[in-house]
Amino acid sequence: MSRRAAFLDRDGTIVQGVEYLSSPEELALMPNAANAIKQFNKRGYLTVIVTNQSGIARGYFTEERLTGIHRRLIEMLSREGARIDAIYYCPHLAEGIIEAYSIDCQCRKPRPGMLLRAAREHDINLSASIMIGDTPADVMAGKAVGCKTVLVQPHNNGFDMPENPDFIVKDLMGAVLLMS
Ligand SMILES: [Mg+2]
Ligand SMILES: [Zn+2]
Protein backbone atom coordinates (compact mmCIF):
# COMPACT_ATOMS: atom_id res chain seq x y z
CA MET A 1 0.00 0.00 0.00
CA SER A 2 1.41 3.36 -0.92
CA ARG A 3 2.27 5.78 1.84
CA ARG A 4 2.09 9.46 2.33
CA ALA A 5 5.23 11.48 2.88
CA ALA A 6 6.30 14.71 4.45
CA PHE A 7 8.97 16.03 2.08
CA LEU A 8 11.21 18.33 4.05
CA ASP A 9 13.63 20.91 2.81
CA ARG A 10 16.80 20.92 4.93
CA ASP A 11 18.39 24.37 5.12
CA GLY A 12 16.19 26.99 6.72
CA THR A 13 13.54 24.37 7.45
CA ILE A 14 15.09 21.63 9.63
CA VAL A 15 18.42 23.33 10.32
CA GLN A 16 19.35 26.98 10.47
CA GLY A 17 20.18 28.30 7.04
CA VAL A 18 23.94 28.54 6.58
CA GLU A 19 25.16 29.39 3.10
CA TYR A 20 26.83 26.29 1.62
CA LEU A 21 26.88 24.51 4.94
CA SER A 22 29.95 22.34 4.63
CA SER A 23 30.75 20.91 8.05
CA PRO A 24 28.76 18.91 10.63
CA GLU A 25 29.72 21.52 13.25
CA GLU A 26 27.59 24.07 11.41
CA LEU A 27 24.39 22.07 11.93
CA ALA A 28 21.93 23.72 14.32
CA LEU A 29 18.37 22.44 14.51
CA MET A 30 15.59 24.96 14.06
CA PRO A 31 13.38 25.38 17.13
CA ASN A 32 10.74 22.64 17.27
CA ALA A 33 12.11 20.82 14.22
CA ALA A 34 12.90 17.53 15.97
CA ASN A 35 9.58 17.51 17.76
CA ALA A 36 7.71 18.21 14.52
CA ILE A 37 9.50 15.37 12.72
CA LYS A 38 8.62 13.08 15.63
CA GLN A 39 4.98 14.01 15.15
CA PHE A 40 5.15 13.21 11.44
CA ASN A 41 6.68 9.83 12.37
CA LYS A 42 3.81 9.18 14.77
CA ARG A 43 1.19 10.11 12.21
CA GLY A 44 2.55 7.62 9.72
CA TYR A 45 4.22 10.02 7.30
CA LEU A 46 7.46 8.95 5.70
CA THR A 47 9.89 11.77 6.43
CA VAL A 48 11.98 12.49 3.36
CA ILE A 49 14.56 15.28 3.16
CA VAL A 50 14.93 16.81 -0.30
CA THR A 51 17.77 19.30 -0.46
CA ASN A 52 19.63 21.26 -3.13
CA GLN A 53 23.36 21.02 -2.48
CA SER A 54 24.97 22.88 -5.35
CA GLY A 55 28.00 23.49 -3.12
CA ILE A 56 29.15 20.14 -4.51
CA ALA A 57 29.03 21.32 -8.14
CA ARG A 58 30.62 24.59 -7.04
CA GLY A 59 33.54 22.68 -5.53
CA TYR A 60 32.91 23.87 -1.96
CA PHE A 61 32.56 20.36 -0.52
CA THR A 62 32.38 16.74 -1.64
CA GLU A 63 29.62 14.16 -1.59
CA GLU A 64 31.60 12.31 1.09
CA ARG A 65 31.51 15.43 3.24
CA LEU A 66 27.79 15.80 2.67
CA THR A 67 27.26 12.19 3.71
CA GLY A 68 29.05 12.96 6.98
CA ILE A 69 26.88 16.02 7.52
CA HIS A 70 23.75 13.97 6.98
CA ARG A 71 24.95 11.21 9.28
CA ARG A 72 25.38 13.81 12.00
CA LEU A 73 21.99 15.38 11.29
CA ILE A 74 20.25 12.02 11.59
CA GLU A 75 22.07 11.43 14.87
CA MET A 76 21.07 14.85 16.26
CA LEU A 77 17.44 14.21 15.38
CA SER A 78 17.36 10.65 16.67
CA ARG A 79 18.76 11.83 20.00
CA GLU A 80 15.49 13.76 20.26
CA GLY A 81 13.41 10.80 19.16
CA ALA A 82 12.87 11.95 15.56
CA ARG A 83 13.42 9.64 12.59
CA ILE A 84 14.31 10.58 9.01
CA ASP A 85 13.32 7.84 6.57
CA ALA A 86 15.28 8.99 3.53
CA ILE A 87 17.46 11.81 2.26
CA TYR A 88 17.69 12.92 -1.37
CA TYR A 89 20.05 15.66 -2.44
CA CYS A 90 20.84 17.38 -5.71
CA PRO A 91 24.58 18.01 -6.10
CA HIS A 92 24.21 19.68 -9.48
CA LEU A 93 24.39 23.14 -10.96
CA ALA A 94 24.45 23.86 -14.68
CA GLU A 95 27.10 26.56 -14.21
CA GLY A 96 29.15 24.65 -11.62
CA ILE A 97 32.91 24.18 -11.79
CA ILE A 98 33.18 20.44 -11.04
CA GLU A 99 32.47 18.95 -14.41
CA ALA A 100 30.77 15.76 -13.29
CA TYR A 101 28.10 17.75 -11.47
CA SER A 102 27.72 20.67 -13.85
CA ILE A 103 24.56 19.62 -15.62
CA ASP A 104 21.09 21.02 -16.12
CA CYS A 105 19.48 18.25 -14.10
CA GLN A 106 15.90 17.32 -13.34
CA CYS A 107 16.44 17.13 -9.59
CA ARG A 108 17.43 20.66 -8.57
CA LYS A 109 14.37 22.27 -7.01
CA PRO A 110 12.15 23.89 -8.29
CA ARG A 111 12.26 20.82 -10.52
CA PRO A 112 10.60 17.81 -8.91
CA GLY A 113 13.11 15.04 -9.72
CA MET A 114 13.94 14.22 -6.10
CA LEU A 115 10.28 13.91 -5.15
CA LEU A 116 9.54 11.71 -8.14
CA ARG A 117 12.47 9.45 -7.41
CA ALA A 118 11.50 9.17 -3.75
CA ALA A 119 7.93 8.35 -4.75
CA ARG A 120 9.17 5.53 -7.00
CA GLU A 121 11.62 4.13 -4.50
CA HIS A 122 9.32 4.30 -1.47
CA ASP A 123 5.91 3.81 -3.05
CA ILE A 124 4.69 7.25 -2.00
CA ASN A 125 1.25 8.61 -2.84
CA LEU A 126 2.21 12.13 -3.92
CA SER A 127 -1.27 13.59 -3.83
CA ALA A 128 -1.60 12.55 -0.18
CA SER A 129 1.81 14.04 0.62
CA ILE A 130 3.10 17.40 1.70
CA MET A 131 6.16 19.44 0.71
CA ILE A 132 7.49 21.80 3.36
CA GLY A 133 10.22 24.35 2.76
CA ASP A 134 11.27 27.94 3.16
CA THR A 135 11.63 29.09 -0.46
CA PRO A 136 9.54 29.40 -3.63
CA ALA A 137 11.58 26.57 -5.19
CA ASP A 138 10.26 24.20 -2.52
CA VAL A 139 6.69 25.24 -3.17
CA MET A 140 7.11 24.89 -6.92
CA ALA A 141 8.63 21.41 -6.66
CA GLY A 142 5.77 20.28 -4.45
CA LYS A 143 3.12 21.76 -6.72
CA ALA A 144 4.68 20.13 -9.76
CA VAL A 145 3.89 16.68 -8.36
CA GLY A 146 0.56 17.46 -6.73
CA CYS A 147 1.65 17.64 -3.10
CA LYS A 148 0.14 20.03 -0.60
CA THR A 149 2.68 22.79 -0.12
CA VAL A 150 3.67 24.58 3.04
CA LEU A 151 5.99 27.56 3.18
CA VAL A 152 7.93 27.96 6.42
CA GLN A 153 8.46 31.62 7.06
CA PRO A 154 9.88 32.37 10.50
CA HIS A 155 10.31 36.04 9.67
CA ASN A 156 8.17 37.64 7.09
CA ASN A 157 10.89 37.80 4.49
CA GLY A 158 8.48 38.88 1.79
CA PHE A 159 9.25 36.36 -0.93
CA ASP A 160 7.42 37.26 -4.06
CA MET A 161 5.69 33.95 -4.64
CA PRO A 162 5.11 33.08 -8.28
CA GLU A 163 2.84 30.31 -7.06
CA ASN A 164 1.18 30.58 -3.72
CA PRO A 165 1.74 27.86 -1.16
CA ASP A 166 -1.32 26.15 0.26
CA PHE A 167 -0.23 27.20 3.73
CA ILE A 168 2.28 29.52 5.38
CA VAL A 169 3.55 28.61 8.85
CA LYS A 170 6.17 29.93 11.27
CA ASP A 171 7.99 26.63 11.76
CA LEU A 172 7.76 22.90 11.08
CA MET A 173 5.47 22.38 14.03
CA GLY A 174 2.99 24.69 12.35
CA ALA A 175 2.94 22.26 9.44
CA VAL A 176 2.23 19.34 11.75
CA LEU A 177 -0.74 21.14 13.22
CA LEU A 178 -2.20 21.60 9.75
CA MET A 179 -2.04 17.86 9.14
CA SER A 180 -3.84 16.59 12.19
MG1 LIG B 1 15.75 26.04 2.37
ZN1 LIG C 1 20.31 17.61 -9.66
Q: Overview of this structure, please?
A:
This protein is an alpha/beta fold. It has a single domain, classed as HAD superfamily/HAD-like (Rossmann fold, 3-Layer(aba) Sandwich). Helices cover 30% and strands 16% of the residues. It is built from five helices and six strands. It has helices at residues 33-42, 63-79, 113-122, 136-144, 172-179; strands spanning 5-8, 46-52, 86-90, 130-133, 148-152, 167-169. It has a six-stranded parallel beta sheet, with helices on both faces. Helix 4 links the parallel strand 4 (130-133) and strand 5. The longest helix is centred in the middle third of the chain and has 17 residues, at 63-79. It is globular. The structure holds magnesium ion (MG) and zinc ion.
Layout of strands and helices, then pairs:
Layout: E1 5-8, H1 33-42, E2 46-52, H2 63-79, E3 86-90, H3 113-122, E4 130-133, H4 136-144, E5 148-152, E6 167-169, H5 172-179
Parallel strand pairs: 1-2, 1-4, 2-3, 4-5, 5-6
This protein binds magnesium ion and zinc ion.
Gross CATH architecture: 3-Layer(aba) Sandwich
Q: Work out the helix count.
A: 5
- Would you tell me the structural class of the helices and strands? alpha/beta
Kindly report the CATH topology. Rossmann fold
Mean pLDDT: 95
Find the count of extended strands (DSSP E, 2+ residues).
6
The rough form would be described as globular
Residue share in helix: 25-40%
Top CATH class: Alpha Beta
Strand order of the largest sheet: 3-2-1-4-5-6
Residue windows where pLDDT falls under 50 for at least 5 positions: none
- The topology string of helices and strands comes to EHEHEHEHEEH
